[in-house]
Design a protein that fits this description.
Pfam families: FG-GAP_3. By secondary structure, this protein is mostly beta strands. 1% of the residues lie in helices and 48% in strands. An eight-stranded mixed beta sheet has the order 31-33-36-35-34-37-38-32, with no helix packed on it. The protein has a five-stranded antiparallel beta sheet with strand order 1-6-5-4-3, with no helix packed on it.
Length: 740
């Protein structure tokens, strides 16, 4: 098997599982006292030595990132959210007690809010006792907006019909409520974002200098004052971002095109960047670049989606680059960098830090924490047997591959090495794997040949992220040879000679509709066969394990063609004087020695037996007379053991179209005949062995128009065949003259 050479992060899976386990009695260093009972374990012991990143919980959102760690939330199948704090340095993870938690942007502060107006803040970096802020003494009317370090940013209606912004904290244990100054009395607050514990941005509309305006106001948390303001158009909507040098916001033009407006702080110089899309986006300023991504309403448990890739555009050159193949959530960290939960082709799924590049260069993307999952489509395991024995494992045979993603379209190509014949099979998702149920047929409906095969599974990710996954390998197909198999695939074939003297193999195959024969593109295995006036398929008479052909030429010489798999070996002369016979048949073991015998009737109606020897040079012994009166039949056909007796049997069709069965007694002779069918006049009986592989020989009726009818064997000598059933039409290049 050839595995893909792309980097895979699957080796981290075990490490992440270890890192996220909770072991009672093991306390995370510096964890707040209230969380000590939850415990934590160190990921480093479980991680591969080459890894230097923390674990990120699978199927989780990023909720916050501070100087020492990050907050994540995970909810699967509508279960309550599980919140975790993970340290960058050593991967130690603390599972927070049941509740709802938020993070203060750019800090290690995590808060649990209760419904009774009490906010509990934990410093996950320094540890210690939590800070409780009870806003009930301040009275009602407050609406929570954001955390700014250890302060609460809240909104409250004022007496003039507008809305004020309040900063509520508890320095030195004293509850303090400070109103942000500088907003108009009739301000309508539409958006508040906290850039860091020190700065917030407020979008509002209100009356300034007697004019209704839309503005973005920069708030200094320490002084609770507005220090900068920027005019916004009415089309300004959604995300705002603030950096040390710029402020940016999202606008929608009249044609709904999304633009990012960027203004250098302290100026009114605004540059608008048309993103070429109409969807709403989240933005973040990173040095001289602005990042943007479409909002995705999909949970992390779902497949990554290329629609939600994270891009960056240069504020100086307009260059646009893709940073992450997809992103589900992002925040700003303590250093002003962007932290995003997403994935890259090289490093897989996890938490990435997007930091400014030196001197305006592209942002630097680095993996901070890993889920252990690849972003590319990868092979997890496969279940392809080394050998497929269709005698023991009936078709269809499952060939399965477990992939790292559910969303993929997979096709499998199987190639027979010796001939190049192919089968292409769709692999469908079932029970966690992509499974191709191979029916044992090539694409042209020929039953697959025995021998060595190569397989190639190509899986194309439905989300459009990354290249197709291609894996390959080998296996072998084996079946026992059968008495009428001329292409080494265990099926009963029909040999058809046309008027041009060409000999064709019509492969027998079985699908959900039952047994049939290849009616298109039969395989030609010889020319010049018009020199023969009698053709017989006796099975393996020469010990090669393949089915053979016996032919009599027009001078009365009998020839043997040994089977050689998917062809016939050069002919060997058996002997002359065979022109005295008007009918030949072979394929039944009449004396129980395990070798097929040959029967012949002469022009006087005498039936003769030629016992098989197993020798390629003298395949038949001296003839033995079985009896006269066989001139009443226009066809005799050896069928194998169809009656359940001790030996092979024979059927004969008389001139009235009646079919008679002669049961072999095991000593080279037959029991008295039994009438087993009527109306066989239009059909040539052909003994083809066990077509439907139920352990009983069957009989084919070939009609002059090319129809191939199957009479299934029953094993009951009184009624050895079911009714004739049309299975297919065979039509070689010219009309058939002989079918055997």
């Amino acid at each position: 098997m050839n595995l893909p050479t792309r980097n895979t992060r699957l080796r981290l899976t075990a490490a992440v599982a270890v890192a996220l386990a909770v072991t009672a009695g093991t306390t995370a260093t510096a964890a707040p006292a209230a969380f000590a009972t939850t415990g934590a374990v160190t990921a480093a012991a479980g991680q591969s030595a080459e890894q230097d990143v923390a674990p990120f919980p699978v199927d989780a959102w990023l909720l916050g990132a501070g100087p020492t760690g990050f907050l994540s939330g995970q909810s699967i199948l509508n279960a309550p959210m599980t919140y975790r704090w993970t340290r960058y340095a050593d991967g130690v993870t603390t599972v927070l007690p049941e509740g709802a938690y938020s993070s203060a942007q750019g800090s290690d502060i995590v808060s649990a809010r209760s419904k009774d107006g009490v906010f509990t803040l934990y410093d996950m970096g320094k540890g210690g006792e939590p800070l409780e802020i009870d806003i009930n003494p301040l009275g009602g009317g407050y609406t929570f907006a954001r955390y700014a370090g250890t302060r609460l940013v809240m909104k409250k209606a004022n007496a003039t019909g507008g809305t004020d912004v309040h900063l509520i904290g508890k320095p030195q244990g004293v509850l303090v409520d400070e109103t942000v100054t500088g907003l108009p009395a009739d301000a309508v607050i539409t958006y508040i974002d906290v850039d860091s514990p020190d700065t917030a941005v407020v979008r509002y509309s209100g009356t300034v200098d007697g004019v209704k305006r839309n503005r973005a106001a920069v708030v200094d948390i320490a002084t609770h004052t507005i220090v900068e303001e920027y005019e916004l158009p009415e089309s300004g909507t959604g995300s705002l971002s603030l950096s040390a040098t710029h402020i940016a916001w999202v606008e929608k033009s009249a044609d709904s095109t999304t633009k990012v407006a960027v203004t250098r702080r302290g100026t009114d110089q605004t540059v608008r960047h048309d993103l070429g899309i109409t969807a709403s986006v989240a933005i973040e300023l990173i040095g001289d670049w602005v990042t943007y991504r479409q909002f995705g309403n999909y949970a992390p448990i779902q497949e990554p989606n290329a629609l939600f890739a994270l891009f960056a555009r240069s504020l100086t050159t307009g260059e646009t680059v893709k940073l992450l193949e997809h992103a589900t959530s992002s925040v700003t960290d303590a250093g002003g960098a962007q932290m995003a939960r997403g994935g890259t082709l090289d490093q897989g799924e996890g938490l990435y830090r997007i930091a400014p590049g030196a001197d305006g260069a592209r942002p630097v993307v680095s993996l901070v924490a890993s889920t252990g999952q690849p972003t590319t489509l990868e092979l997890v395991k496969q279940d392809v047997p080394e050998t497929i024995d269709f005698d023991r494992t009936p078709a269809p045979v499952p060939l399965s591959w477990t992939l790292s993603r559910i969303g993929a379209t997979a096709r499998v190509e199987l190639v027979h090495k010796a001939t190049g014949k192919r089968a292409t099979v769709q692999a469908y998702y079932s029970n966690g794997s992509r499974t191709a149920n191979w029916d044992g047929l090539f694409s042209d409906s020929v039953t697959a040949y025995n021998g060595d095969y190569t397989w190639k599974m190509t899986a194309t990710p439905n989300n459009g992220i990354g290249p197709a996954l291609v894996v390959s390998g080998t296996f072998k197909v084996v079946r026992q040879s059968t008495s009428h198999d001329f292409d080494d695939n265990g099926s009963s074939d029909l040999l058809v000679r046309n008027s041009n003297g060409e000999l064709f193999v019509h492969d027998g195959y079985t699908n959900r509709y039952g047994p049939s024969w290849q009616d298109k593109n039969p395989v030609r295995i010889g020319t010049g066969w018009n020199v023969y006036d009698q053709l017989v398929a006796p099975g393996d008479v020469a010990g090669s394990s393949y089915a053979d052909v016996v032919a009599r030429d027009k001078t009365g010489v009998l020839w043997l063609y040994q089977g050689a798999g998917r062809t016939l070996a050069p002919r060997v002369k058996v002997g002359g004087g065979w022109g005295v016979y008007n009918k030949l048949t072979a394929g039944s073991d009449l004396n129980g020695d395990g070798r097929p015998d040959l029967l012949a009737t002469d022009t006087s109606g005498v039936l003769w037996l030629y016992k098989g020897t197993g020798s390629a040079t003298t395949p038949f012994s001296t003839r033995v007379k079985l009896g006269g009166g066989w001139g009443i039949y226009n066809t005799i056909t050896a069928t194998g053991n169809i009656g359940g007796g001790p030996a092979g049997d024979l059927v004969a069709r008389d001139t009235a179209g009646v079919l008679w069965l002669y049961l072999g007694k095991g000593d080279g002779t037959f029991a008295a005949r039994t009438r087993v069918g009527d109306n066989w006049g239009p059909f040539l009986p052909v003994g083809v062995g066990d077509v439907d592989r139920d352990g009983r020989p069957d009989l084919v009726g070939y009609a002059a128009g090319g129809g191939v009818y199957l009479a299934r064997g029953t094993g009951d000598w009184k009624a050895p065949f079911q009714e004739l059933d049309l299975r297919t039409y065979v039509s070689p290049d010219s009309s058939p003259t002989t079918v055997f």
